[in-house]
Amino acid sequence: MYKVSVIGISEPVLSLSQLELLDTCSLLIATGRLRDMAADFSGKIQSIAPLEQAITAIRSTLPTGNIAVLASGDPLFYGIGKRLLEEFLPGQLEFYPALSALQRACALFKTPWDDAVIVSLHGRQHHHIPGLLLKNKKTIVFTDQNNSPQIIADKINKYLQSIGHIDLIERIAFSVAENLGLPNENVFTGSLEETAKNDFSPLNILYLQRPHLQGQKQTSFDLGLTEEEISHSRGLITKNEVRVVTLHQLQLPRQGVFWDIGAGSGSISIEAARTNPRLTVYAVEHKEEELNNIKENIRRYDCFNVIPVFGRAPEVLADLPAPDRVFIGGSTGSLADIVRLVAKQLTANGHLVINGVIEKTITTAPQYMREAGFAVSRCVININRESKNGAVQNFNPITIMAGTR
Questions:
Q1: DSSP strand pairing (392-394 vs 384-386)
Q2: Best exposed site among 2, 17, 280, 370 by fewest CB in 10 Å?
Q3: How far is the first Cα of the chain from the last one, in angstroms, to the nearest whole number?
Q4: H helices of 67-210, where?
Q5: pLDDT (tens digit, 9 = 90+) per residue, 131-151?
Q6: Residue 170 zone, left/alpha/beta (φ > 0; ψ -120 to 50; rest)
Q7: Full-model pTM
Q8: Residue 312: CB partners within 8 Å, gap ≥ 6?
Q9: In 3D, which of 359, 327, 364 has the Cα closest to residue 243?
Q10: What is the rounded distance in angstroms from the CA atom of residue 16 to the CA atom of residue 121?
Q11: Of 346, 258, 243, 363, nearest to 306 (Cα)?
């Protein structure tokens, strides 16, 4: 049976064993400098791009001859190997990995990579790059032309400026390894602002280091912050028990977009961000004092996947990406308009949850939701607390209205 040999390349020239393997093949799949390295190949050479055409060529040639595919580094690490395994049987493929770009880059960075979070931005869309990359202390990034190191640094800088995190701007460190394995191989190390002003080769890997700063809180749990642990004003915060039930009703996805409208102190946003670190959370609030609380809580708990949005709904919602989940904790008299806009913007299988205390909201919210096409369920939360010293607190009941469609 003929085989597809997927050969990883990490050196500037092909080795003797690699050349001998090519001699057994009738078709070579390669592109760019890898194709140039096999200029003496006697068979047919097909570009690896467009990939669909390359796969078609492999499929038509495989019954009659061996095929070689040249790839950079390890073909099974963010490489073509994964796609080939989707298209062909394992028995039809042989893999010959070389030193991966990640391994080479970390050797140049002089850092272990077994404790790093590795992110690939190749051909992927992300709503909020800072939230994706700032969550961890040590992140290695495979960049692309739409998210080059300088673009990433600029986005992170602007986001940290927006939440007032000047300390982190000054202490975050960027390193970029360029042109790995080539004569002009280079390593750049600099600050966030220095990286944003630089130009880099498109062949690069980014290494981001985020220090732990004084004032940041570390907990052993993801869900369960108390009211005392969340910065808020004059007792204006969603109570612990209500927060948990609200998040349960939202059924937040692991990743996607969540709008928290009338976010107040941001307690719902912060708990949502902590339990779903790949979720992008837009905390919409029109009171400046509360917006400052949201920013303080983002900094305190490293919730960089929360984006504060200053303004009133529904006006400020028009520029936000379509949400997968929406929570309305406050509407300043515009509930009907907000529900109508949410119904238009919400993705398929999205959820809308509204909390109400006053009778008007409890009565009108389900009506607005049903008119907008939601199936509505309701539950009422009565909170009675008894503290360790025996003091009893009774709170007004909260009605939680959940809409699905």
A1: antiparallel
A2: 17
A3: 52
A4: 80-87, 101-109, 129-133, 149-162, 166-171, 192-196
A5: 999 999 999 999 999 999 999
A6: alpha
A7: 0.90
A8: 286, 332, 334
A9: 327
A10: 34
A11: 258
Structure tokens at 357: 């205390």
Report the run of H or E that residue 72 belongs to, with start and end.
Answer: strand 66-72
Contact 89, 48 (CB under 8 A): no
What tokens does 212 get? 């732990």
Distance (Å, rounded) from C-alpha 64 to C-alpha 26?
Answer: 9
320, two tokens: 């936000």
* Amino acid sitting at position 284: V
The first and second tokens of residue 156, run together, are 């992170």
The pLDDT tens digits of the residues spanning 38-47 come to 999 999 999 9
The full set of domain ranges for the chain reads: 4-99, 103-209, 227-404
CATH of domain 103-209: 3.30.950.10
Considering the four listed CATH numbers 1.20.1250.20, 3.90.79.10, 3.20.20.70, 3.40.50.150, the one that applies to the domain covering 227-404 is 3.40.50.150
- Give CA–CA dist 268/270, Å, rounded: 6
Q: What 8-state DSSP symbol labels residue 48?
A: S
8 Å CB contact between 85 and 77: no
Mind listing the pLDDT tens digit for each residue in 264-315?
999 999 999 999 999 999 999 999 999 999 999 999 999 999 999 999 999 9
Is the per-residue pLDDT at 123 higher than 80? no
Q: What is the dihedral of CA 177, 192, 129, 160, to 10 degrees?
A: 170
- CATH class for the region spanning 4-99: alpha beta
Say how far apart CA 45 and CA 284 lie, in whole Å: 55
Q: Where are the beta strands (DSSP E) in 197-246?
A: 204-209
From CA 202, how far away is CA 397, in angstroms rounded? 57
In this structure, the number of other CB atoms found within 10 A of the CB of residue 344 comes to: 8
CA distance 186 to 149: 14
Helix then strand count (H, E) for the chain reads: 14, 19
